[in-house]
């Protein structure tokens, strides 16, 4: 499972997690599921599933004459064995079946259940990562919304598969499966495993038979139905398919095309060839999370859909694609034994993003991604949470920045400590020992210990079974007579950590690395030098997850920006130096950083350079012009154009004109804004010629222009982007821009714009209701009513009616 970062922002804004201290064990294994056979069809009008199930089980150890299955909000029509009816009790959550006799653990038996699944009546709630938990989702089932296709898809994690078929809904179960899916002929289907057969029916429907012979957890079962084009690819002899809507079929390989290479790379580093018979990816409308690793049938949210003008800048779904692929080893092949041990699924999938980016794009790129994840972990209320948590309020609480972000950072530290060869051999042993079964953190530790010969109890005790991270205070003592420097490391957090620690000493630009091991809350390390060091960089490789407090002066940061090995340190230095550009050396350091080998440093330098100060020279501006027109990364070009746009200099018009012809939407958007301030007429003329789909993608720069221009004709367009801009963006400038847009629309008499805004408020309020976003929506709608009071009653009546109708939907 990959959750969207926007969801974590909403959690910070609207939710307060409450944690109890009760122990949460996984369900006892009374029965083992052996095989699950389903026959299903759909009642689109009622949003229900008609199902038949043959579930084969055996007692796990003790003999028993009762079977308990999870089955949420269903109608149970019949339960039989060998065509003989069985007595049962059902309370809308569990189906308890009386078996005809006691069965021993050596005996298999098959129960038949005829049922109707009613997902709209499911009462369980979702989480930050998975915003709903009704298992089965009908999208535009009656086809009334002409702007949205009809689709059906499922989402099983954590325990929602039991909303569409009776099962033992626990990650410690493993079962093979076969599914017969009957749908109208116009739809294609996707499920786990192989499509063995398609049978045309006399009533205009078709039955697809999907067979999955290997064993996996019930939460990984998947069905997808809709009008899709299937774009075919391959990895070795394994089919790799991309299920996309027709509009995106020409771009499917640009979006998902790295999949075969990812499968090859992950097979190589784990030492285990991709273990399944196909790899398919489907995009679901209104999907409730980022993506989900259903075995051989991954579903992505519609944010995966991107146009070439976006993909040329950056494929925003690439990390997620890698994440879900790696789950096919960590999560699908070997599954977390309990939700408490979610780390053995999600921490690995998180770290796979680093591993892929390091392999494909280099260490700086991977380190930048790791830094974003660490910042995400630190920005939440996560410090006191253990990675492995047997005490939690709800299993859904496990899907957070500890299981994902911190867990990935911990694996990075473990890899650094063991070395690559031992780390990957340990992965192989863990996967081999527990394939098609379950695993937990202790088994992971034992695998690494057996491979490496190292005791790792200390590592797992402090990182897996405890909370927090080191908070370090660093000081330096120089002895000029002996030509030594002592680095003092004091830990200021409650828990005492021990850890390897990299220290770089720079003498005239030459770096010497010292690798030490910190034990105890107060440690000191003495190193010789020939000349007084220009800089001492602690945590020089950026591996340790920690906070560091030390005193540095401007010259330290200038040197760090130029010579530091790790991206996080160069970024830290650049942001510090940027605050002091009244100093000529600082300004020159930022200007030089615009030529850094790594594009994200170039972007940061362009975003922070001060072209107004007295040291700003024409040659620096000329350099930025060259970057704007020629940098190999379009995102860097866009940043350069935005920087030049602040100058509002008519001589820069040729730069913006060239940008308006770019294939990159980021370059196009920044060029439109830059052009607006030197040639308004040309910028507005260009904006009017843009296709609607492009306007939606570059909505933020267009909104800025339309608001500046006081172009009320475009309020209808602006209205559809206000909520995302105000609440889902983490950029304060964008939030402020869309707050201004909200106020303008709320005060307008543009009924169409108010309708669009009200619809968006209702949509977001329902989507994020569990974070009290419905209440936020009601408050916003009330603000619109208040702002409408300046109009005469006859003019505001229509608008107020629109708002009251929207409010009623949120208050239902």
UniProtKB/TrEMBL annotation:
The record's catalysed reaction(s) read: Release of an N-terminal amino acid, Xaa-|-Yaa- from a peptide, amide or arylamide. Xaa is preferably Ala, but may be most amino acids including Pro (slow action). When a terminal hydrophobic residue is followed by a prolyl residue, the two may be released as an intact Xaa-Pro dipeptide
SUPFAM superfamilies, per database record: ARM repeat (SSF48371), Leukotriene A4 hydrolase N-terminal domain (SSF63737), Metalloproteases ('zincins'), catalytic domain (SSF55486)
In the UniProt record, the signal sequence range is: 1-24
Task: State the protein's name.
Answer: Aminopeptidase N
What GO biological process terms does the UniProt entry carry, in alphabetical order?
peptide catabolic process; proteolysis
Give every Peptidase M1 membrane alanine aminopeptidase domain span. Answer: 258-463
InterPro entries membership: Aminopeptidase_N-like_N (IPR045357), Aminopeptidase_N-like_N_sf (IPR042097), ARM-like (IPR011989), ARM-type_fold (IPR016024), Peptidase_M1 (IPR001930), Peptidase_M1_aminopeptidases (IPR050344), Peptidase_M1_dom (IPR014782), Peptidase_M4/M1_CTD_sf (IPR027268)
Q: Which UniProt key words apply to this protein?
A: Aminopeptidase, Hydrolase, Metal-binding, Metalloprotease, Protease, Signal, Zinc
The enzyme's E.C. designation: 3.4.11.2
Q: Which Pfam families match?
A: Peptidase_M1, Peptidase_M1_N
- Name what cofactor the protein needs: Zn(2+)
Origin organism of this chain?
Tenacibaculum pelagium
Any one Gene Ontology cellular component term annotated for this protein? extracellular space
User: Domain Aminopeptidase N-like N-terminal: where?
Assistant: 35-220
Q: Which family does it belong to?
A: Belongs to the peptidase M1 family.
Superkingdom field: Bacteria
């Amino acid at each position: 499972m990959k959750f969207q970062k926007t969801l974590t922002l909403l959690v910070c804004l609207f939710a307060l997690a409450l944690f109890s201290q009760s122990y949460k064990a996984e369900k006892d294994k009374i029965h083992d599921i052996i095989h699950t056979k389903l026959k299903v069809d759909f009642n689109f009008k009622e949003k229900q599933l008609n199902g038949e199930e043959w579930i084969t089980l055996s007692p796990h150890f003790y003999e028993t004459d009762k079977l308990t299955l999870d089955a949420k909000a269903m109608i149970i029509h019949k339960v039989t064995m060998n065509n003989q009816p069985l007595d049962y009790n059902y309370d809308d959550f569990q189906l308890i079946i009386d078996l005809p006799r006691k069965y021993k653990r050596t005996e298999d038996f098959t129960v038949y259940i005829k049922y109707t699944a009613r997902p709209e009546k499911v009462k369980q709630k979702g989480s930050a990562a998975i915003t709903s938990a009704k298992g089965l989702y009908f999208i535009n089932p009656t086809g009334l919304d002409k702007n949205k296709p009809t689709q059906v898809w499922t989402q099983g994690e954590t325990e929602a598969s039991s909303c569409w078929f009776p099962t033992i809904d626990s990650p410690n179960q493993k079962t093979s499966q076969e599914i017969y899916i009957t749908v109208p002929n116009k739809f294609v289907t996707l499920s786990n495993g192989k499509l063995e057969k398609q049978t045309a029916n006399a009533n205009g429907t078709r039955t697809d038979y999907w067979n999955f012979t290997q064993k996996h957890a019930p939460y990984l079962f998947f069905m997808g139905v809709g009008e899709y084009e299937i774009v075919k690819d391959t990895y070795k002899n394994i089919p790799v398919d991309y299920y996309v809507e027709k509009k995106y079929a020409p771009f499917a390989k640009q979006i998902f095309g790295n999949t075969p290479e990812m499968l090859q790379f992950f097979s190589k580093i784990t030492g285990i060839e991709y273990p399944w018979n196909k790899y398919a990816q489907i995009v679901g409308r209104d999907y409730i999370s980022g993506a989900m690793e259903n075995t051989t049938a991954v579903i992505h949210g519609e944010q995966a859909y991107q146009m070439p003008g976006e993909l040329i800048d950056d494929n925003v779904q690439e990390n997620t694609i890698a994440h879900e692929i790696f789950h096919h080893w960590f999560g699908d092949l070997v599954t977390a034994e309990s939700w408490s041990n979610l780390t053995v699924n999600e921490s690995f999938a998180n770290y796979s993003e680093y591993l892929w980016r390091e392999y494909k794009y280099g260490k700086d790129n991977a380190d930048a991604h790791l830094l974003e994840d660490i910042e995400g972990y630190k920005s939440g209320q996560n410090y006191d949470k253990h990675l492995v948590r047997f005490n939690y309020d709800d299993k859904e609480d496990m899907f957070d920045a500890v299981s994902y972000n911190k867990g990935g950072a911990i694996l990075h530290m473990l890899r650094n400590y063991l070395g690559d060869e031992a780390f990957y051999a340990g992965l192989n042993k863990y996967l081999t020992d527990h394939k098609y079964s379950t695993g937990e953190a202790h088994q992971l530790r034992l695998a690494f210990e057996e491979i490496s010969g190292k005791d790792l109890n200390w590592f797992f005790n402090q990182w897996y079974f405890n909370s927090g991270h080191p908070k370090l205070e660093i000081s330096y003592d120089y002895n000029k007579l002996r030509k030594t420097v002592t680095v003092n490391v004091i830990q200021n957090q409650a828990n005492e950590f021990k850890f390897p620690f990299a220290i770089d000493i720079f003498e005239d630009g030459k770096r010497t690395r010292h690798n030490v091991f910190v034990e105890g809350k107060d440690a000191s390390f003495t190193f010789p030098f020939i000349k007084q060091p220009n800089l001492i960089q602690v945590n020089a490789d950026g591996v340790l997850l920690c906070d560091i407090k030390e005193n540095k002066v401007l010259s330290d940061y200038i040197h760090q920006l130029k010579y530091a090995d790790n991206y996080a340190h160069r970024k830290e230095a650049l942001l510090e130096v940027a605050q002091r550009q009244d100093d000529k050396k600082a300004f020159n350091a930022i200007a030089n950083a615009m030529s850094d080998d790594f594009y994200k440093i170039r972007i940061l330098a362009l975003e922070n350079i001060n072209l107004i100060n007295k040291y700003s020279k024409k040659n620096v501006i000329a350099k930025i012009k060259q970057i704007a027109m020629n940098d190999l990364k379009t995102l860097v070009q866009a940043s350069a154009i935005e920087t030049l746009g602040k100058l509002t200099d008519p001589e820069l018009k040729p730069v913006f004109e060239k940008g308006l012809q770019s294939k990159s939407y980021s370059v196009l958007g920044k060029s439109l804004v830059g052009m607006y301030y030197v040639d308004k007429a040309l910028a507005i003329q260009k904006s009017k010629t843009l296709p609607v789909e492009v306007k939606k993608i570059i909505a933020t720069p267009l909104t800025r222009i339309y608001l500046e221009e006081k172009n009320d004709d475009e309020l209808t367009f602006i209205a559809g982007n206000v909520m995302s801009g105000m609440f889902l963006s983490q950029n304060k400038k964008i939030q402020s821009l869309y707050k201004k847009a909200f106020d303008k629309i709320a005060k307008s008499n543009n009924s169409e714009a108010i309708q669009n805004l009200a619809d968006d408020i209702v949509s977001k309020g329902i989507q994020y209701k569990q974070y009290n976003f419905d209440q936020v929506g009601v408050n916003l709608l009330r603000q619109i009513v208040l702002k409408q009071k300046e109009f005469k009653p006859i003019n505001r009546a229509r608008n107020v009616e629109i708002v009251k109708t929207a409010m009623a939907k949120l208050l239902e």
